Amino acid sequence: MLSTDYLQQHLGTGGLGEDDLAVIALLEEAQLAFVESATGRTFREAADLVEVYDGTDEIRLELRTAVADDEVESSVAVEFPNGAAGWYSPFTAPLPFRIQTHPRLGVRNLLVLTGGLKWPRGFNNVRIGYPGGYEEGSEPAEIRALVADLTCWRFRARTVATSASATSEQPDGIPAHLQATIDKWRLIQREPQPRLCRVA
Fold first, then answer.
1. Cα distance between residue 187 and residue 131, in whole Å
2. Is residue 28 within 8 Å of 1, Cβ to Cβ?
3. Neighbouring residues of 104: CB distance < 8 A, sequence distance ≥ 6
4. Which residues contact 12 (CB under 8 A, 6 or more apart)?
5. Listing from the earlier edge strand, what are the strands of the sheet with 122-132?
6. Burial of 136 (0-12, 13-18, 19+ CB in 10 A)
7. Fewer CB near the terminus (10 Å): N or C of the chain?
8. What pLDDT, in 10s, does the model give residues 60-95?
9. For the chain, what percentages of helix, strand and coil (3-state, to nearest 5) are there?
């Protein structure tokens, strides 16, 4: 997400040696992985994605990443489980949902059903295929700043990571303003509540 040149500027220093540059690159990847794990979202390069979600009996479904810029409703495939037959789509054009921008986060990651429909309640019962993610440099500014701040915080503390995969967990004491940003972006999955039924 962030170049070592950008991170050096963010640190307010220049002329780092090769060893320090290698460390800061590992830390940047590790902090991006941590932010994605902590928020339940992805901020990677644009790609064709297929993801499974829980339906919660609401009109709105929040995706883990943004629908790619300039993509329209027809580029999004919505499917539901069909027993042993796999997945099926009950929708025909025009698709009965709109792509909307999240009012708090400013990213296009909401699928809002129209015509009085709601996403059916259940676990892993909605599969969405869509072109999602971000072109390099177009990630949300708040997330870029968060990853940069976390990387520089870890670098200054000299908590050196040996590999990105080994540093998805953070030590205690994340600065409060950075934790607040993580909390703001956390994807909240409402657990579907079981329907009550009458027992004869």
1. 19
2. yes
3. 184
4. none
5. 47-55, 122-132, 77-81, 87-88
6. exposed
7. C
8. 999 999 999 888 888 999 999 998 889 998 877 667
9. 30, 20, 45
Model confidence band, residue 143 (pLDDT cutoffs 50, 70, 90)? very high
Kindly give, in sequence order, each residue whose CB lies less than 8 Å from that of residue 108, ignoring residues fewer than 6 positions away: 66, 67, 69, 99, 100, 101, 102
Which residues have CB under 8 Å from 176's CB, separation 6+? none
Distance separating alpha carbons of residues 139 and 58, to the nearest angstrom? 28
Residue 77: which residues within 8 A CB-CB, separation 6 or more? 89, 128, 129, 130
What b/e sequence results for 12-51 when a residue is b if at least 16 CB atoms lie within 10 Å of its CB, and e otherwise?
eeeebeeebeebbbbbbbbbbbbbbebbebbbeebeebee
Q: Where are the domains of the chain?
A: 4-42+139-185, 47-132
Q: How many CB atoms lie within 10 A of CB 179?
A: 14
CA distance 6 to 151: 11
| Structure-token pair, residue 98 | 């709109």
Which parts of the chain are beta strand (E)? 47-55, 60-62, 77-81, 87-88, 97-101, 108-113, 122-132
Decide the pairing of beta strands 47-55 and 122-132.
antiparallel
The Cα–Cα gap between 200 and 192 comes to 25
3-state SS track over 109-140:
EEEEECCCCCCCCEEEEEEEEEEECECCCCCC
Contact yes or no for 24/3 (Cβ under 8 A): no
